[in-house]
Amino acid sequence: MKKTIKSITAALSAAVMCALPMAGSISANAGEQYTTYRTTYFVKYDNANVKNTSITVTTKKGLTKLGRKNFNNSGDFGAIHGSGGQTYDHVNTNWDRKKFSGDNYVKKGILYNETSKTIYGGNFEKYLVSNTALNIAAADVNGGSAAERVGYFAVNVGDVTGAWNSTSFTDFKADGITGMDSVEISKLINAGYTDIAAYSKKVNYSSASNESVKRLRAMIAGDINNDGKLTENDATVIQYWVVGKVRDFSAFNGVADNKIVSLAKSMKY
Question: How many other CB atoms sit within 10 Å of the CB of residue 7?
Fold first, then answer.
């Protein structure tokens, strides 16, 4: 008899529980559970000729910024300027797109992403100081404005089902992290959706409701270590979260795929 999703999830959780060590080498403050955000910037369509961007984000206190990652080897970060006050942080990031032989800046897809975290939960937009606190400026190869050709969305890392359920670029429908998120990663892998950068070049960004946009967001949410590839190791780390062994996905940001499961096993709270 074919296994149900529920039985598969239960089996995965049981397998992780059996693998949990009695002690580990990495500690965190007891009781604290972090929500990790991945904010992704992308060119919406081919032949957009976007040459550079200048993106300013003003967030409330309580959000910790953890770094940026280039995708598609598509550009370089320029000057990054930061300021702030008692209640807000203000960051301006400049990015210049590389010109590859023959492409003339024409490709759509992900430019770069930013990772941040908080102990207060919610979605990323909750931490913007206003509806206009994330401002995208961009120029095309002729020096004209190209801001309308660049977009963004944020996901809660690990919340793959929330990504599938989101139908707005600026309103992530977080629904918590469960064994179902691990199952959804396995489904994506089995269907051949593993390379985030490559898939981002095929997405129809005209609407957040498009299946391809939701799939890309699900892939990014499932990419626990932000290496641009979906693997079963990402799915396994989520299972460690489900059983309470992992409470901070940001700890995996930049860690090699073949090391993230052992890192999850070594965590203790």
Answer: 11
